[in-house]
Amino acid sequence: MASPYHLACDPNHGLTTAVVNGADLCLEGAPGVGKSEFAEALVAGLKQAGLRNVELQPENPPRELLKVFSQDVDKLAGWLQQVMLMKRQLVLATAMPDTTTVIDRSLAGDYSFYHYHRAAGRINETMARAYEKQLAAHLFVPPRLVIYLTTPPAVSIERIKKRGIEWEILTYDEQYYRDMDVAHRAAFKRFGIQYAEIDWSEHHPEGKVPPERAMQVLEQALRQVYGENWARLLNA
């Protein structure tokens, strides 16, 4: 039986892997959308397609820090965003050359949380100036591709419930996801990022995304951002 994820234009992913070889690929999206599972599948797909140097930079907020943050969001929102910005900058500054790096949330994603909490009045002027100063202190080459995974709020909420983390279940409602979508789009605009928006509502048993499906989405995203002539990136 033929794979349901067969790519008619490039079944061996040769052009896709040539375009992304040695590039940074960034996944963005709100909590519960399925970034981590997709990232792992994408890394596996790239390796299966023949790329040797592939690295995953996972989202890295310590769970203990997030638990403390959840207990006093109003007081700690600014501090958490400052810490995460410094951690993210360190990750980007130490990325290995000649390596295809899949990044599970990057600067724009972190900035979306800053934007969300700032709009909610949880980050004061002093902390905002400190954040913006730190943000402007480092310049990084933007990822070759940013994929923004989205779902209807109800889908993400159901996934959060299955994760079973109590403070997440109590915190993330439908309004939160609507607000975070606004914040993500504001972040992309702030950084001038072209991005591919992918509806990631589809269900995969136990979160196990087939690597070939991740590769299909990767090509779909490349076409969405760069158009039908995305192969020109080979000469970039």
Task: Write up what this structure looks like.
The N and C termini lie far apart (38 Å). The chain is of the alpha/beta class and 236 residues long. Helix 2 (35-48) packs across helix 10 (211-226) and helix 4 runs antiparallel to helix 5 (107-119). It has one domain: Rossmann fold. Helix content is 54%, strand content 10%.
For this entry, give a set of tags:
Rossmann fold, 236 residues, five-stranded parallel beta sheet, alpha/beta
Number of strands: 5
Order of helices and strands: HEHEHHEHHEHHHEH
Return Rg in Å: 18 Å
- The low-confidence parts are 1-9
- Order of strands across the widest beta sheet? 2-3-1-4-5
Tell me the overall shape.
globular
Name the CATH architecture.
3-Layer(aba) Sandwich
Which fold name fills CATH's third level, the topology? Rossmann fold
Into how many domains do the coordinates divide? 1
Q: Please, what is the average pLDDT?
A: 86
SSE blueprint and pairings:
Elements lengths: L13 H7 L3 E5 L6 H14 L5 E4 L5 H9 L1 H21 L6 E5 L2 H13 L5 H12 L8 E6 L2 H11 L2 H6 L2 H18 L4 E4 L11 H16 L10
Parallel strand pairs: 1-3, 1-4, 2-3, 4-5
Helix pairs in contact: 2-10, 3-4, 4-5, 4-6, 5-9, 7-9
Short description:
It contains 10 helices and 5 strands, in the order H-E-H-E-H-H-E-H-H-E-H-H-H-E-H.
